[in-house]
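Run log // design_07
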């Protein structure tokens, strides 16, 4: 993650995910927020595996709630901003998983 990145205004529209991702990272500067996203993403994976093993669709709901709950706590209480999900839902979901990967491979530090 680059320090000093000036995120785009919240009202900006993005034509490509490659343009959105730097904005997304700017909305996740707080370490605790990133950590909460990371934990929430692992929870989503765990609930999806549980769904696959049991076939019980309630685990899909649990996956969605887990992912958003951790992320939104990070934004509202630590990052002090409005989650990008509200303005850019698809790109935001993609950003969650790209950031998760970037954390796993060491491109972004926790």
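design_07 sequence
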């Amino acid at each position: 993650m680059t320090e000093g990145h000036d995120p785009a205004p919240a009202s900006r529209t993005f034509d490509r995910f490659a343009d959105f991702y730097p904005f997304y990272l700017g909305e996740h500067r707080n370490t605790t927020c990133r950590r909460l996203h990371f934990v929430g993403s692992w929870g989503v994976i765990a609930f999806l595996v549980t769904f696959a093993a049991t076939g019980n669709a309630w685990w899909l709901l649990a996956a969605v709630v887990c992912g958003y709950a951790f992320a939104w706590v990070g934004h509202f209480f630590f990052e002090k901003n409005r989650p990008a999900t509200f303005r850019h839902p698809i790109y935001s979901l993609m950003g969650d998983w790209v950031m998760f990967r970037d954390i796993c491979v060491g491109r972004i530090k926790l």
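Helices lie at 17-26, 31-54, 58-79, 89-104.
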